[in-house]
Structure formats: C-alpha cells, structure tokens
Design brief:
The complex is a heterodimer of chains A (271) and B (132).
Chain A lengths: L1 E5 L9 H13 L4 E5 L6 H10 L4 E6 L1 H11 L5 E6 L5 H5 L7 H8 L2 E9 L2 E3 L2 E4 L4 E5 L3 E5 L4 E6 L4 H7 L16 E7 L7 E4 L10 E4 L3 E5 L1 E6 L4 E4 L3 E4 L2 E13 L7
Chain B lengths: L1 H8 L3 E5 L3 E9 L2 E4 L2 E8 L2 E4 L4 E8 L1 E4 L2 E3 L2 E9 L4 E3 L2 E8 L4 E8 L9 E5 L5
Parallel strand pairs in B: 1-3, 2-4, 3-5, 4-6, 5-7, 6-8, 6-9, 7-9, 8-10, 9-11, 10-12, 11-12
Antiparallel strand pairs in B: 12-13
Classes of the chains: A alpha+beta (271), B mainly beta (132).
Chain lengths: 271, 132
C-alpha cells in the first residue's frame, strides 16, 4: 500500500497543474494510495507513523529535499520502501537517485527498481548525503584509537555518505568527470577542508569510487579519512547540520548504518 | 625517482592527513596513506606511506613502502623500499629492505637495510648526514 506525503508548498497555485498531473499518473499506473498534505497541525513523522500503522508499506515524498530528509528520519532501519516525486527547487537527492521531476517520477515508482543504501547516523538522527560542522573548535575521536585536531580556524568538517555533483565541485574544482561517494560501501568519507583552496596542487582519491576511472581529485590541503564511526566533541556545544535541514549538536556520535534505507531509484542514478 | 614511485605505489591513496590537521594516538590503516600535517603516537599502514615536505611525525612508523620528504622522529620499519627525499629528516632507527637516499637527506640513528629473509644480509651504519 502506498502513502504519499505532499509538502505544503504544493498548495501554491503555481503547483496546482503539476499536482493534478501527478495524481492522474498515479491512478493510471495503478500505484494509488492515500495522499496527505503536510500541515501545521501534524508533523511528517506523526503522519508517516499513523499510515504505517494502517498498513502502508511504500512511503512516497512529494516535494523537495526537505520533506525527503524528514521522512528518511522516520523510516530508516524499518522494512518500508521509500519513493520520491521531486517537485520544485532543491532536489539534489532525487537527482542523484536518477528520478525525474513531477509526474515523470511516477513511472520510476511504478517500475520499483529498489536499492538498499547506507545511512549516516548522528546521535538519533539520520542523513543520506552529509553531516556538516562549520566550527573548527571540535576534536574528532576515532574508536578510542586516535583523535583528529584541527589546526586552522578556517577548517570545516563534512562527513559524506553520498554527494551530488555540485558538492563534489566545491571540494574538487579541478575535477572533469564526477561520480559520487558510494552510498553502498558501508563507509563514510570524512573531509576536513578550509575556505581557501585556490592555488593548491591536487591529488587523486580512488578508495570511495565505485568505478576506478572516476577518482576524486582533491586539493592537497584537504584531509580525507574513510570512517565507520567517529565521535565529535567540543568545549561548547556546536551545531551539526544533516542534509541541510536537520540540526543536532555536539557531543555527537557518528556512525554508518549499512543498507538502512530501502529506496526506489531510477536507471540514471549516479552510483 | 619521486615521480616514478609516486605513479607506481601511491596512485590509490585512501587516507590523507592534511597540513591543517594534527592526529594524536595510534593511527592504523590498511590503505595507502599520505601525510602533509602532524602525527603524534604510532603509525601503521599495511600499504604505502607518503610523508610530504610539510609533515611532522613524532611516532613509531611501520609501512610496506615509504617515500619521505618531511620529518620523522621515531623508529621507522619498512618492509620494502624507503625513499628519502632531499628534504627528509629521520631521527630514529630505520629498518628497511631497500633504501634510496637523496643528497641533503638527514638520518640520525641506526640503519638496518637488506633482505627480510630469515638470514638477512644486513648493512648497518650510523650517519648524521648523508651526502653524495
């Protein structure tokens, strides 16, 4: 049984036609189910939990990365299938998963090409893309073996599970061909970077790449650690931003959960 | 020398300790490791180690092969080849199957260089500074 949770920005008149087309396509393909729009009265988490109790097995986010992140945090580690119908702006997740916009995404849902993806976990929250800490006043402890201290005030930490092309361009501006971090390798990629990377020489990183010909070229002043778990501590609590929309705070325990998300993907996904 | 080894052994770097990072503790990895920053404690990799010009290591070091352009204070044990660049400085005992030393490199300690077979042909030397 399908449950469609629609972001409330689709209430805008500009999206009325698109939404009607999506509804019609869902019926045409025989993948119809309950459609609920987000409101101020109930959170995405409450709505999804209610529908799961009623027997929903496939949860579909209709909207952008914001609602996708919210739903991932509800259905992670459960035997539920997740689908996305991207509408509007900020749809990096759907882009990486090879899901086209609007009603065209319904065909992908109907085809049910399913992949199991790793998720990153920070304290009790999950992320599909990345966790970010902009403060350099933190220490990273790895399984009581060693700790990583930042020496520059310009440093920032990003822990990737999966990255879109735009993200990789930021950390690897000289790269010609982009793939992405592999979200099915059971590894997170911890990168310590600084704001000033111009004029640096570059070197190639292969470990994370699914295809050997798609190595990532990084500036030499970047630090790169493949990790499974890491603890982040700081004298004063600082925010850890997950997938741009969810915020938790240090102290933070970061780990990777292999194959924790069952998701419908398109043929043109980038991993 | 630097380029050929770089191409052969260091193509697939898996971990980088960059110049703005200091690692403290027992750092161990299976993959190739490049250090441009600081490390204190112990360091072990089953693969190849590249110590950049700006790197400062105060640690016991163990690796398969190593290429050193920076500074190491501590005993170094390399299964295969260690290449010391002209800017390299090693303060500690060094053990390797093969060694290559560029003019200007500094070694302050005991060397054991030769086969790693049960009856190794050892070459031992003490050196303050190596000059061709």
């Amino acid at each position: 049984m399908y449950f469609y949770l629609v972001d409330n920005f689709l209430n805008d008149k500009g999206y009325k036609k698109i939404f009607t087309k999506i509804e019609n396509r869902i019926i045409d393909l025989g993948i119809n189910g309950r459609i609920t729009k987000l409101s101020l009265l109930k959170s995405a988490a409450e709505l999804v939990k209610e529908e799961v109790k009623r027997g929903a097995k496939t949860i579909v986010a209709v909207g952008n990365d914001k609602i996708v992140s919210q739903i991932i945090n509800v259905i992670a580690e459960q035997d539920l299938t997740f689908g996305i119908i991207p509408v509007g702006e900020n749809n990096q997740i759907a882009q990486v998963l090879g899901i086209p916009y609007n009603e065209a995404a319904c065909d992908i849902l109907s085809a049910r090409r399913i992949e199991y993806l790793d998720l990153g976990k920070v304290n009790q929250n999950y992320f599909l893309f990345k966790a970010q800490i902009k403060s350099p006043e933190v220490v990273l402890d790895s399984e009581n073996q060693y700790n990583i201290n930042l020496l520059s005030k310009n440093n920032q930490i990003t822990i990737y599970n999966l990255a879109a092309e735009g993200e990789l361009k930021k950390i690897s501006p000289q790269q010609k061909n982009y793939s992405c971090f592999n979200p099915q390798d059971g590894i997170l990629e911890l990168i310590v970077s600084s704001d000033n990377e111009s004029g640096q020489s570059f070197l190639k990183i292969f470990s994370w790449a699914k295809r050997r010909d798609s190595a990532l070229t990084l500036a030499k002043n970047i630090s790169f650690f493949p990790i499974k778990t890491i603890n982040i501590r700081s004298k004063e609590s600082v925010p850890v931003i997950l997938d741009q929309y969810i915020v938790t705070k240090t102290p933070a325990q970061v780990s990777v959960l292999p194959k924790a998300l069952k998701i419908i993907v398109g043929k043109s996904r980038v991993f | 020398m630097f380029k050929s080894t770089d191409e052969k052994n260091f193509k697939e770097i898996e971990t980088i300790i960059g110049p703005s990072v200091k690692v403290k503790g027992n750092f161990s990895t299976r993959g190739n490791l490049r250090i441009e920053g600081e490390l204190e404690g112990s360091l072990k990799t089953d693969s190849n180690l590249l110590v950049g010009k700006s790197a400062k290591i105060i640690a016991a070091v163990a690796a398969n092969n190593a290429q050193v352009a920076g500074e190491i204070k501590g005993n170094v044990k390399i299964k295969g080849l260690i290449e010391l660049e002209s800017t390299a400085k090693v303060v500690g005992d060094l053990e390797a199957k093969e060694i290559s030393v560029a003019k200007g490199a500094v070694i302050n300690g005991r060397w054991v260089v030769g086969s790693t077979s049960p009856e190794p042909a050892k070459i031992q030397a003490k050196a303050e500074k190596i000059e061709e």
